Task: structure prediction
Amino acid sequence: MPELQEMSVSDFAALVPSRVRRSIERGWTHGQEKLYNDIKADKKRVYKTHERDTVILPLMIGKTVAVHNGKD
Result:
């Protein structure tokens, strides 16, 4: 698990299926980029987002992400 957390995004992209790899190659949306930057800065305990199509990256392991479901 520690090896995975230290892995770069490009190395991680080589391990995942093509759909995820294409999402990584296309780049992040503004919301995804903000979420990733917040997680890198390690500001909070729970990260709230509306980004339902976000790729789970190794830097997110051990973090709690609350995804808005439209009701709550």
Residues 2-67 form a domain with the 30s Ribosomal Protein S19; Chain A fold (CATH 3.30.860.10). The mean pLDDT is 89. The beta strands are 46-49, 64-67.
